[in-house]
């Protein structure tokens, strides 16, 4: 459901899950990604999903391309492993989904370019080729931001120059595009970064919650400011609330400059 009006006339949306403090802080300031064009590179996208259907109805998906099967349908194909589209659907819904009461992404007002580049049935270098082709395609469509929860490890030394996706990411950054990408699934040990997270001038993001979960499970304790008696979900909510407070402070400080 739609909530009350917030400062600046922005709607306050019911995020449903009771978390997402960072998104609430941004929405309350009138920030929803409006007029920003974001390219998402992933395994495919189920556009009939409840969280995504409004993107289609509002004509905010301006282009879609399947680089794996060379067509324009980014949902599961007959040759795909069933569920191929699942990961990309989750990423897109987290970023820009709009199903008040269930999930509302921080960038629910943005335009999206969707690229299916990842084949979940294999891990081969051609997928990194798809990734680079998708970067070039998204650039040609005027993408402001490129985002990918993907990672490549084909024996590259992570020095910011070797991976072909890293080289493409360097070029994207030099053209003024912000690339946001995952660091990989193997951290936090040294030498676990995957391309293109080592590129220069990009934003590489680690799995904060997974790290927190691992910390709790392995250490059997919590950060000092989180009471031990809370459930894991309650700790997550507090962690996000704390991050939201920090973000609000930073936004306020930026306004005052
Ligand atoms: Ca297809
Ligand atoms: Ca793969």
Describe this structure as you would to a colleague:
It contains seven helices and ten strands. The protein has 257 residues and is α/β, with parallel strands linked by helices. The protein has two domains: 2-150, Rossmann fold; 208-257. The strands form three sheets. The protein has a six-stranded parallel beta sheet with strand order 4-7-3-8-9-10, with helices on both faces. Strands 1-2 form a two-stranded antiparallel ribbon. The chain has a two-stranded antiparallel sheet with strand order 5-6. A hairpin with a 3-residue loop joins β5 and β6. It starts with a strand and ends with a helix. Mean pLDDT is 83; it is low at 1-10 and 218-223. The structure holds calcium ion (2 copies). One calcium ion binds next to loops. The site of one calcium ion (CA) has 5 residues, from loops.
- Run of helices and strands: EEHEHEHEEEHEHEEHH
CATH class of the largest domain: Alpha Beta
Count of folded domains = 2
CATH homologous superfamily designation of the largest domain: Peptidase S8/S53 domain
- Main sheet, how many strands, which sense, barrel? 6 strands, parallel
Which fold name is given in CATH as the topology of the largest domain?
A: Rossmann fold
- Physical arrangement of strands within the biggest beta sheet: 4-7-3-8-9-10
Share of helical residues:
25-40%
Could you give the count of β-strands?
A: 10
Ligands, deduplicated: calcium ion
Poorly predicted residue ranges: 1-10, 218-223
Look at the structure and give the mean pLDDT.
Answer: 83
Count of helical segments?
Answer: 7
Beta-strand content bin: 15-25%
| End-to-end distance | 36 Å
* Helix-and-strand structural type: alpha/beta
Shape: globular
Under the CATH scheme, the architecture of the largest domain is 3-Layer(aba) Sandwich
